[in-house]
Design brief:
elongated, 73 residues, alpha+beta
Length: 73
């Protein structure tokens, strides 16, 4: 089993077993968003999964506040 860092929060884990090769793309969660996964069985799955997770990662980044909001009393 091998893991590869693809972006700040996206990882790919490659597995080989008697049934063949496959992998899992993982979008790591944080305090605001859950972890998401995408099963990969071929190159087309990898491209589709990475594109979808990257879009999600970018959208979540734009929704997350870069600095905590100040609370006024």
């Amino acid at each position: 089993m091998k893991g590869i860092i693809l972006s700040e929060r996206i990882r790919y884990v490659h597995c080989e077993d008697p049934e063949g090769t496959h992998g899992i793309l993982v979008l790591l969660g944080n305090d605001e968003f859950p972890t998401k996964t995408f099963e990969v069985n071929d190159q087309a799955d990898f491209r589709r999964g990475f594109r979808n997770l990257k879009i999600t990662e970018d959208a979540q980044s734009s929704l997350s506040p870069s600095q905590p909001a100040l609370v006024r009393a």
